[in-house]
Amino acid sequence: MNEAQSKRSPWVAVALSLVSTGLGHIYCGRIVRGLALFCASLLFAPFAFVLALLAPATPVLVLLILAVLGVVGLYLFAAVDAWRLSRAAGEAFTPRDYNRPVVYLLLGLVGLIYPMAAVAYLRGHVFEAFLIPSGDMAPTLLAGDRFLVNKVVTASSTPERGDVVVFRVPERHGQNWVKRVIGLPGDRVAVRDGEVFVNGKKLERDRVPDSHLAPLGSQVYAESLAGRRYFVQLGGGDAKAADFAEKSVPEGSYFVLGDNRDHSLDSRAFGFIARGDIVGGAAYIYLPAESWGRFGVLRP
Amino acid sequence: MRSDEGYESWKQHRARAEVPPDFAADVLARLPAPRPRVGPWLRVAACALAGLACLFRIASVLGLFLPS
Lengths: 300, 68
Hints:
A: 2 domains, 4-stranded antiparallel β-sheet, 8 helices, 35% helix, 26% strand, elongated, B: mainly alpha, 3 helices
């Protein structure tokens, strides 16, 4: 071994790869493959952003899950590959001009900080996950469902009638609730004897016979609003739907109801919600509570 | 035979050549300094830290699906 040669240690290569994807390859003198792996490990965040811009569809959710799992797989693959390369490099390795501590330090810092910063950004501005703790939105969302909210679409457009939105509850600091938008700014809304009226017109409901969605003692209906059809649940238990005297929805506010009409704390109780309190629109159920048949895009 | 004698004489002359007094020190100075050996405990600690860093990175990425 001459003065310019040094051994590539497998454990150093693996350790560097674990800290930052591709760094172990650079340590072994494979800068092209190392930088390719490093850049590939950064791509999941822009990829998720692009997916948020697409129309909601179950394949989009599948792609998002695959992207996240792919990044984790890439982390592990890079470590194993770096170990293999360091063994192949053997004792006689001539360090390249990029085999410097400053390169390892910079790429290591990026590799450590980027995943945390990227996911914090994604959760704040693109997708955020929520867990349903109650049955207020049954049968659309069941207690125990885990779903994703798309914040990109909500930030660039206003909610429509029939959208399922997550919003902050001003009276309950730190809590986010999910309900369906019934009335837009300027609409006249009312609830009488369980029937919902928007601009004086009663929302049509068709009973869904023998629905598997309905718990014992309740009945599921398909309700129509602004050309959209969704399921609502009535009855079950002793609770009865609260009425809401007709009011106009103020500018910049929305009237929201839970789909489980007789067991929902919604605008009938706490009034209108402000546009600024809306976090985003419920888009995907990624971990359904009961059946995998509800996995995917939120219906309708 | 005369050439053999000449060669032997030359060889004995070379063998008696004076070595500079700092020859050994000079040779040692030119050798690369031996690297300090990394102890096994340091290796294990570094690998454990790297493993923790990797777990932190994986947890960060999977955190996208962690409910608020």
